[in-house]
């Protein structure tokens, strides 16, 4: 029996033996398993000097690494056969593309914690750096993460906790440095003789400089501050390092006040440091950038960096030699960037942004001046990730009916190495962009998934709330695996008769700083719940929705908002599915605040918590949580279950022993979604509307 047929058989067995008789029919279980088995790609990386690309593909729940030359049909360089939750990540190619390093096992979010064991194997796997050699053999470099090849490809460096290991690529490395804290990232100098090392020590972060010089391997620490020093970038000549110095504001700090970050420069020869530029008060005075974004030097002495000075995350250029240097932003205002690179000849800026349409992300190219950008990708796809491979440009694209997949652009040609096919018997319907007005009149964007026109109404309805909360849902598959699965679930729910509204509430990304950092969000008052409540009222007013059969579902911060909706508005939301949500937001302490300020902060956190409104909670809820969750404490769900039990509020609960926050096994997503279908059908009566 093939792995895929095993997955489908398991789904049918699950539906037949675990779910009650009125649960989702077996054909729905099979259909959901088939949809979740569609190939999904992530971790795209390219070689600096060759048109070779590599990425991780999850197909039928099994992860493997694929390699493509110039967008040609890929070949598989690993041979994993089990959906056991072992992640593959941290991919990096040598400059010539002949070798590939990657991390097997562990958790990219918590690389130095004990590795997960979602499959409950007798002997848990280790977080291991492996190297695919030119002849295809796979060598083991050792335990660790963050592998990176030297510019000539001869050496490989990686980290293990606070240890730095360096050795001949494909050989046995040696430990050259051990430091307190955790090494989070490594950066080679242009000539390959030095490494800039980012070190997280909790209360602060440092940058150290290690030189490959026999007899003198002790690190040199860049002049440090009581701050988070991060994102070091060597100048093209290797003589200096630029980096970001950021400070975390106190809870009581007024927005727009204070100077919380700067760009520093360190001269390697003299060992001196100077401040190049300090973010002024106002918008952008607090540092924020998407994960993986850093500083980049251009060929003419300018430094590229992300900044929200206009209220939108843009890429700006700082002329380092000017006195004083004044930043000039290159990407359009009124839009945000997600990632960027310089072209191979370093004359053009390549980036992804939602310019012109905040719900549509494309790849763009523009000269390093004020010349307008030109789009690189089509209007019918979403692109938030971009890299280069030699002269080629590669993006990770998604569509209405296709999960994340790489696309290669070169010399005006477009090549798609892998094409996914929609499973027979299922049609992905284009979600509609809708605009909802919050109680304060603010424009809130969402995506509406409608049942087939042949399905009689009025229909039961659902709000879907994403996690993060710094996320943005789009009218297509999402580039993140967690939300790629959620998109499938929303499509299936619509196909089964639900009207589903995915709402991009305040505190999310994509709509500017004022939206992401709105007053009173989260622990400061849960103001974003007003947008969720407005979305519920929008559904209730629709003529195709049964007003008494509106539910809500989501995970993580979306689980928190689901619980908050049921606690505050059980009259509006008749049922909900809460995946690993937060239920008590109170923090144990708040350093730097007076006793009175601490009391006010704790009171605000409590009022913002679902637990504070437990007396009003009446609607039934489904609780699902993995008990090895490192993002949201498992005790958040056990606490809620105890509180619901004490008040006789009906709930159903399920645990995945050994699973993390974002479930690592596709079979666990399948089980969770089948439980959700059964629960929603039972309480919102949609199972018969197919």
Question: What topology does this entry show?
Answer:
Elements: H1 3-17, H2 26-36, E1 40-46, E2 52-59, E3 62-69, E4 75-76, E5 88-93, E6 100-104, E7 128-132, E8 138-143, E9 145-149, E10 155-160, E11 163-168, E12 174-178, E13 182-188, E14 194-200, E15 205-211, E16 220-221, E17 228-234, E18 240-246, E19 261-267, E20 272-278, E21 296-297, E22 302-307, E23 314-319, E24 328-329, E25 337-342, E26 348-353, E27 362-367, E28 374-375, E29 382-389, E30 392-398, E31 405-410, E32 413-415, E33 432-437, E34 443-449, E35 459-465, H3 481-495, E36 499-504, H4 513-516, H5 529-541, E37 545-555, H6 557-568, E38 575-579, H7 595-607, E39 621-626, H8 635-646, E40 651-656, H9 666-684
A few lines on this structure:
By secondary structure, the protein is α+β, with helices and mostly antiparallel strands. It is built from nine helices and 40 strands.
């Amino acid at each position: 029996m093939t792995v895929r047929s095993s997955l489908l058989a398991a789904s049918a067995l699950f539906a037949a033996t675990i779910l009650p008789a009125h649960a989702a029919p077996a054909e729905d279980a099979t259909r959901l398993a088939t949809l979740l088995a569609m190939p999904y790609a992530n971790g795209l990386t390219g070689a600096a000097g060759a048109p070779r690309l590599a990425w991780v593909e999850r197909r039928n729940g099994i992860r493997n690494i694929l390699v493509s030359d110039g967008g040609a049909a890929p070949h598989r360089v690993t041979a994993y056969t089990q959906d056991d939750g072992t992640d593959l990540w941290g991919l990096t190619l040598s400059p010539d593309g002949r070798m590939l390093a990657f991390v097997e096992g562990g958790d990219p979010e918590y690389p130095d914690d004990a590795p997960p064991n979602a499959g409950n194997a007798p002997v848990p796997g280790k977080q291991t750096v492996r190297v695919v050699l030119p002849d295809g053999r796979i060598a083991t470099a050792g335990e660790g993460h963050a592998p990176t090849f030297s510019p000539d490809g001869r050496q490989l460096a990686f980290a293990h906790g606070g240890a730095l290991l360096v050795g001949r690529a494909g050989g046995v490395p040696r430990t050259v440095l051990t430091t307190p804290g955790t090494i989070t990232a490594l950066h080679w100098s242009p000539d390959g003789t030095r490494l800039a090392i980012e070190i997280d020590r909790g209360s602060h972060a440092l940058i150290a400089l290690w030189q490959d010089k026999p007899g003198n391997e002790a690190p040199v620490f860049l002049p440090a501050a009581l701050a988070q020093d991060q994102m070091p970038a060597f100048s093209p000549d290797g003589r200096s390092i630029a980096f970001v110095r950021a400070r975390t504001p106190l809870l009581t700090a007024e927005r727009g006040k204070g100077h919380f970050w700067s760009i520093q420069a360190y001269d390697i020869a003299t060992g001196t440091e100077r401040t190049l530029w300090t973010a002024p008060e106002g918008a952008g005075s607090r540092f924020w950038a998407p994960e993986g974004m850093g500083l980049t030097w251009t060929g003419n002495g300018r430094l590229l960096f992300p900044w929200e000075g206009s209220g939108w995350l843009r890429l700006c250029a700082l002329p380092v030699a000017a006195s004083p240097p004044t930043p000039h932003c290159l990407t359009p205002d009124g839009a945000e960037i997600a990632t960027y690179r310089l072209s191979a000849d370093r004359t053009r800026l390549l980036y992804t942004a939602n310019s012109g349409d905040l719900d549509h992300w494309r790849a763009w190219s523009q000269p390093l001046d004020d010349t307008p950008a030109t789009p690189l990708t089509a209007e019918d796809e979403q692109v938030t990730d971009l890299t280069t491979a030699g002269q080629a440009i590669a993006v990770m694209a998604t569509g209405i009916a296709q999960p994340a997949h790489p696309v290669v652009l070169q010399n005006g040609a477009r090549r798609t190495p892998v094409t996914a096919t929609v499973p027979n018997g299922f049609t992905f319907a284009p979600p509609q962009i809708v605009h909802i007005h919050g109680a304060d009149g603010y424009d809130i964007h969402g995506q509406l998934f409608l049942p087939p026109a042949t399905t009689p109404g009025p229909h039961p309805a659902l709000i879907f709330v994403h996690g993060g909360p710094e996320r943005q849902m789009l009218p297509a598959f999402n580039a993140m695996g967690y939300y790629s699965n959620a998109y499938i679930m929303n499509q299936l729910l619509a196909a089964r008769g639900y009207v589903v509204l995915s709402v991009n509430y305040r505190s999310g990304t994509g709509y500017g700083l004022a939206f992401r950092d709105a007053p009173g969000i989260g622990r400061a008052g849960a103001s974003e719940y007003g947008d969720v409540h407005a979305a519920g009222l929008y559904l209730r007013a629709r003529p195709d929705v049964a007003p008494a059969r509106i539910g809500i579902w989501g995970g993580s911060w979306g689980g928190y908002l689901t619980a908050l909706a049921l606690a505050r508005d059980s009259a509006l939301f008749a049922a909900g599915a809460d995946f690993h949500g937060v239920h008590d937001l109170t923090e144990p302490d708040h350093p730097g605040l007076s006793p009175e300020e601490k009391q006010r902060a704790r009171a605000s956190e409590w009022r913002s918590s679902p637990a504070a409104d437990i007396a009003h909670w009446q609607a039934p809820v489904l609780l699902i949580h993995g008990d090895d969750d490192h993002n949201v404490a498992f005790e958040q769900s056990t606490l809620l279950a105890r509180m619901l039990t004490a008040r006789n509020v009906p709930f159903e609960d399920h645990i995945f022993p050994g699973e993390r926050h974002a479930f690592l096994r596709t079979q666990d997503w399948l089980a969770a979604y089948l439980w959700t279908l059964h629960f929603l059908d039972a309480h919102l009566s949609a199972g018969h509307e197919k």
